[in-house]
Design a protein that fits this description.
single chain, 125 residues, two-stranded antiparallel sheet
Length: 125
């Protein structure tokens, strides 16, 4: 079970922020939220989220990054060119940071935009 679903089952709506954090609407029920949070910590399988991705999941992330690359170029950014899927896969499996279009080619600075979304494997579910 995912943390977001667990908290929502206990009456605390939430959403993922752009930076991947879970924003929970406590609505003044701080004590009830603390109890729900403790309960959810007991049932959420955090190891599943940390488990290595399958090749199909890695392919999905790669394909979404390529779509984001095209979006960023259309928005006027100059991201790093995509690597091949084979290089992306090898980098992931060997623990190196895989290619992302959200870094500029010139200065290695992060690209921030609301128009082009960075893929998250959690969004695929």
């Amino acid at each position: 079970m995912q943390l977001q679903a667990c908290l929502e089952e206990r009456g605390f709506p939430s959403q993922m922020t752009d930076d991947g954090m879970l924003q929970v609407d406590v609505g003044g029920q701080h004590e009830a939220y603390e109890r729900a949070s403790v309960e959810c910590d007991e049932v959420v399988d955090y190891g599943a989220a940390a488990a290595p991705l399958s090749e199909a999941e890695i392919r999905w992330v790669y394909d979404e990054n390529v779509k984001a690359f095209d979006c960023l170029v259309a928005e006027g950014f100059t991201p790093e060119e995509p690597v091949s899927f084979e290089v992306f896969l090898a980098d992931y499996r060997e623990g190196r940071p895989p290619w992302t279009p959200f870094i500029t080619a010139e200065s290695n600075a992060p690209i921030m935009t609301q128009e082009c979304q960075e893929p998250s494997i959690n969004l695929e579910e």
